[in-house]
Design brief:
6% helix; mainly beta; 9-stranded antiparallel sheet; 10-stranded mixed sheet; 286 residues; 21 strands; single chain
């Protein structure tokens, strides 16, 4: 049975504790995005800061603001705090503009099972709703890119070389995109979907049609991946030392009083992109 380690501080011993379980989780203190520290026995030196919710968008408008999900470092009753029931960890965060987010995380042998549920508590419909998780690589040395300088600016663009999406059965890396050389905040839309224009993200002309994004370690021995039942926007930031990547679960139109759920997975796997897409197809394309 996977364990959950509860961190008491940023330098808590539990963050680097070694267990015999495949996956260990700790609540990340002082996070503003409902973050968890995720470690796997297959690559125990890597700590993945899984930011479960940086914000919620309706169309191109952010709900309330970003970085509001601030949870205590110990479990509580589940309302604005992590709650444990059996192996499932969850929290509920109500945004003042009328969307309530419920996040459920269940450890699995190869990562996490995820369920995001959004409830519209207003009297008006909300269109084009999506939620923004984030996975920085800063504390995962085997995945973190070597910084370089481009036009005098520091860049972590090596991440693009190992970050992949799929289009019509073919994998392509972010580095293959036409804008990869010039754009540190590169995003891609799902095939046939109208572009979303928000914040610093710049959409490339390329598109994807599998809701799966993968990042392979520098030595090629391990891959982490984020996948959802439905997602229409993927992106990566190589302009600062977060060196993070994203795939945003898509909820579409949510009517007043309605709740919509999207299931997902965060994988930590031995091997490369092929192993990740094999797992994705097993879990999501039955």
């Amino acid at each position: 049975m996977p364990s959950l380690l509860i961190a008491q501080g940023e330098n808590s011993e539990s963050v680097s504790s070694v267990t015999t379980d495949p996956i260990s989780i700790s609540i990340r203190p002082d996070s503003k995005s409902g973050s968890l520290n995720i470690r796997s026995q297959i690559c125990p030196n890597e700590n993945f800061d899984f930011r479960t919710c940086e914000g919620v968008l309706s169309g191109s408008n952010v709900m309330d603001d970003l970085f509001l999900v601030q949870l205590p470092p110990v479990p509580g009753d589940g309302n604005k705090s992590w709650k444990k029931q059996d192996d499932t960890w969850s929290y509920t965060w109500p945004y003042e503009e009328g969307i309530t987010v419920n996040v459920k995380v269940e450890p699995a042998s190869d990562g996490l099972k995820l369920t995001y549920t959004l409830e519209n508590t207003t009297t008006r419909a909300m269109d084009d709703v999506q939620l923004h998780p984030c996975i920085p690589t800063t504390e995962a040395p085997g995945f973190f890119p070597e910084p370089t300088f481009r036009n005098g600016d520091k860049s972590w663009s090596d991440l693009y070389e190992r970050l992949s999406l799929w289009s019509d059965g073919k994998r392509f890396s972010f580095s293959e995109a036409k804008l990869a050389e010039s754009e540190p905040h590169l995003a891609f839309m799902y095939q046939g979907v109208a572009p979303i224009n928000w914040a610093w993200w710049i959409n490339g002309s390329e598109t994807f049609n599998l809701p799966l994004i993968t990042l392979t370690s520098r030595d090629g021995h391990h891959t982490v991946a984020l996948a959802f039942e439905q997602a229409i926007w993927a992106s990566a930031n190589v302009g600062d030392e977060r060196a993070c990547f994203h795939l945003f679960p898509w909820f579409g139109r949510i009517e007043p009083g309605e709740s919509v759920s999207v299931n997902g997975r965060f994988y930590i796997l031995e091997g490369g992109p092929k192993e990740a897409i094999d797992r994705f197809q097993k879990d999501f394309q039955k």
